[in-house]
Specification:
Layout (H helix, E strand, L loop, with lengths): L8 E3 L17 H10 L3 E4 L11 H10 L5 H9 L2 H4 L5 E4 L5 H16 L12 H8 E5 L5 H4 L8 E3 L6
Parallel strand pairs: 1-2, 2-3, 3-4, 4-5
Length: about 170
Amino acid sequence: AVSVGHKAVLAASKPEDWGYPSVASSHWDPFWSAVQDTGVPVSFHIGGGTKLDPSLIEQRAMFAAIAPMQLDEPLAVMIYSGALARHPGFKMVLAESGVGWVPYFVARMDATYEKHCLPYPGKTISTPPSEIFKRQVYATFEEEPLGPTLIPLLSEDNFMWASDFPH
């Protein structure tokens, strides 16, 4: 696909959509190796992780308010499963994630790492999530009034402006 011009992979944002074995399984390592070797980023796009239906007018605002934060699950899965750590050249994109929740969530993952990973060397990841994020994860935003305040909390190199033009 790369040889004919593909620039990225769009992945299901709900890990359960990857089937069995789950995306957290090392079963997927040949795929993660391929995207790492080709330099093609894998984008997890908003739209999963909720039972709300944006096609229903009465649920549209609810869905729109929480949709970006639903990318917390694929981010946590890809970091804590070790998929990113095992493939340090694999680039992950959180498409339309926004910025606001990301610094809080990365800090929370670091605290969780200290509590639930450090006591079990060799059984979990050995790199703090914030380091993995800074090395391999990119988040996109469209409208982000708090962006100038929040982006520096992680790294401006990890955030990209996106556009849904023309729709």
